[in-house]
Amino acid sequence: MAEPVPTQITQGCDEIEDSAPCDEDDIQKPDVWGRLLSINKYFPSINLVEDEYSLGRGKKCSIIIDSKEVQATKLFATYSSVHFKISRDTVKNYVYIQDLSSNGTFVNGDKIGKNKRRVLDNNAEIA
């Protein structure tokens, strides 16, 4: 399973031990292929750089939704340990979403169906 992805570079040039001069542009940044843009203040927006992500309450998910603010919402109990998975097919150039939840995952208002997957289009809304 992929490690959680930092949303920003936390180490500046001053902190890198190197005898050569450092330029912020020289720091390797991961190639972002997608973005989960949150429309809810309790969920972070995430740049997608890995080929697969899982989202849910479980500690093994790459995107964990268990902040105190989220736990205080009435919907928290409806989120599964692993709610859904997003994966990228680099050969066919598709992005898929797979519903792994108990209560359903919706894309643009349409239920995916337990253990089913579908192509995730640009600007789709996941609920």
TrEMBL record:
Residues 53-112 form the FHA domain. Pfam families: FHA. PROSITE patterns: FHA_DOMAIN. CDD domains: FHA_CHK2. Gene3D superfamilies: 2.60.200.20. This is FHA domain-containing protein. It comes from Rotaria magnacalcarata.
